[in-house]
Amino acid sequence: MSKRILVVLEEKDGKLRNVSLEALTLAGQLSDGGEVQAVLFSSQAASFQNEIGQHGADTLYVIEGEAWKTYTPDAYSQALVQLIEQAKPDVILAGHTAMGKDVAPRVAARLQIGLVSDCTDADVQEERIIFTRPIYAGKAFQQKAFLEGIVFATLRANNFEVKQSGRQAQIIPFEPVAVDLRTIIKEVVRKTAGTVDLSEAKIIISGGRGVKSAEGFKPLQELAAVLGGAVGASRGACDAEYCDYSLQIGQTGKVVTPDLYIACGISGAIQHLAGMSNAKVIVAINKDPEAPIFQVADYGIVGDLFEVVPLLTEECKKALQ
Ligand code: FAD
């Protein structure tokens, strides 16, 4: 049975986030010929119309105006509630991003609909969508299906394919009525301007307490620059003030699924593994051959990271020339 699916898109630095394209592709697969709707909070939405259509949307609702320039929980959740009441989707998909994590439960609570977060897979079985999500810090997977009603699902980045389906999206402006705002954003100060977004990065070079200082992150940053990757960290490195907590990967940090994760001077505590063990290829560089990180690594290098990482950078430079 065909389904109407609404995708909540996100724009970052003038581009659609990759997880939004993943969500659009998935919507096309799950809709089984039904309508794929998308919504974008942007004054530049027209410039994305083609891309959004090509990735599977039939309809693009555009919400623009001062209140929606920057994400606030009140403005976005109230606008989405009004849109969902009008557009009547069966399923709503969004990225499991800072915004998606915040807005989805608010909308689900207001509309009294189902919520399933941080999905790594979704499939249709006997006309029902089965969502898969990791639990117990990634040690097990839970499958969830809803017997009735609308479902809001957030998707973990880098877990779904991006495909073009060549549809054409029709733009429909949507003007939410009187939203009740308790916060106004005056300015956004970005700490990591210009760097690759950790949660969507395809390559991550991560440092632990073994980097020994803030200065010790430099070789990792150089390798990341050569590979076009992002720099991450263990909580050990963040607690030691070698880097900012925004880089922390793990159970209480960011959960990432890159194609390549290079762990440098990270022991491999269970809480760290919870954030990165689903990476497609894991490389560990550690002085200690008994370090637990080697148990999850596809490739292990026993050695001093201050010798190994610069060598790796030089070799990658040569290979990529
Ligand atoms: P260490 O365990 O000290 O490991 C340092 C490693 O560096 C060692 O294996 C050592 O052999 C190696 N090394 C040292 N020098 C070199 C060198 N020159 N070259 C190569 N290798 C070298 N941790 C997280 O990362 N993320 C989380 O989200 C997180 N959440 C937590 C939540 C809770 C509730 C708790 C209790 C803990 C959490 N932790 C988290 C902390 C976690 O338990 C570990 O303490 C932490 O991951 C250790 O960081 P580390 O591997 O950098 O440091």
List the helices and strands and how they pair.
Elements: E1 5-8, E2 11-12, E3 15-16, H1 18-31, E4 36-41, H2 49-54, E5 59-63, H3 73-87, E6 91-95, H4 98-111, E7 114-119, E8 121-125, E9 128-135, E10 140-144, E11 151-155, E12 170-173, E13 203-207, H5 218-227, E14 230-233, H6 235-239, E15 260-264, H7 270-276, E16 281-286, H8 293-296, E17 299-302, H9 305-320
Parallel strand pairs: 1-4, 1-6, 4-5, 5-12, 6-11, 7-11, 13-14, 13-15, 15-16, 16-17
Antiparallel strand pairs: 2-3, 8-9, 9-10
Helix pairs in contact: 3-4, 5-9
Concise account of the structure shown:
It contains 9 helices and 17 strands. The protein has helices at 18-31, 49-54, 73-87, 98-111, 218-227, 235-239, 270-276, 293-296, 305-320, and strands spanning 5-8, 11-12, 15-16, 36-41, 59-63, 91-95, 114-119, 121-125, 128-135, 140-144, 151-155, 170-173, 203-207, 230-233, 260-264, 281-286, 299-302.
List key phrases describing it.
alpha/beta, 7-stranded parallel β-sheet, 9 helices, 28% helix, binds flavin-adenine dinucleotide
Could you characterize the architecture of this molecule?
The termini are far apart. With 321 residues, this protein is α/β, with parallel strands linked by helices. The model has no long low-confidence stretch (mean pLDDT 94). It has a 7-stranded parallel sheet, with helices on both faces. A 5-stranded parallel sheet has the order 14-13-15-16-17. It is globular and about 60 Å long. Helix content is 28%, strand content 25%. Helix 3 crosses helix 4 (98-111) and helix 5 packs parallel to helix 9.
